[in-house]
Amino acid sequence: MLVLSRRVNEKIVLPNLGVTVEVIEVKGKRVRLGISAPSNVRITRQELLIDMPCEPDRHTDSSDSHFDLPQMVGI
Fold first, then answer.
1. Residues facing residue 32 across a β-bridge
2. Which of these, 2, 20, 8, lies nearest to 72 by C-alpha position?
3. What residue ranges do the domains of the chain occupy?
4. What single-letter DSSP state applies at residue 39?
5. Minimal CA–CA distance to 38: which of 65, 59, 66, 11?
6. Closest alpha carbon to 6 in 22, 18, 19
7. Residue 34 in contact with residue 24, Cβ under 8 Å?
8. Nearest CA-CA partner of 42 in 24, 25, 61, 22
């Protein structure tokens, strides 16, 4: 796992995916994030993944938006 510290208005960029994550606001224990990504990249909160039905060919599709971040950044 890659752990980074960011302040409000600072960003994390995943250039190979065209994804940018920006810290919008921090209030107490809550952080608001803004995520910019191409329309083919699915962004889902983790707690919703359990309830999502599996797409039959999702695991073999080469355009799968799920990725291994440590592998991408060479960790």
1. 25
2. 2
3. 1-38
4. T
5. 65
6. 22
7. yes
8. 61
**DSSP E strand boundaries for 1-75:** 11-14, 19-27, 30-36
**Tokens matching residue 5:** 């510290």
The amino acid that residue 55 corresponds to is: E
What kind and span of H or E run contains 48? Answer: helix 46-49
C-alpha distances out from residue 63 to 10, 45, 59, Å: 29, 20, 10
Q: Which of 17, 48, 49 is nearest to 35 (CA)?
A: 17
Q: What is the average pLDDT across 20-43?
A: 95
Question: What tens digit of pLDDT does each residue of 32-64 get?
Answer: 999 999 999 999 988 888 766 665 544 444 444
* The predicted structure's pLDDT at residue 64: 46
Question: What does the block give as tokens for 26?
Answer: 């921090």
In the structure encoding, which two tokens stand for residue 66, read together? Answer: 């799920």
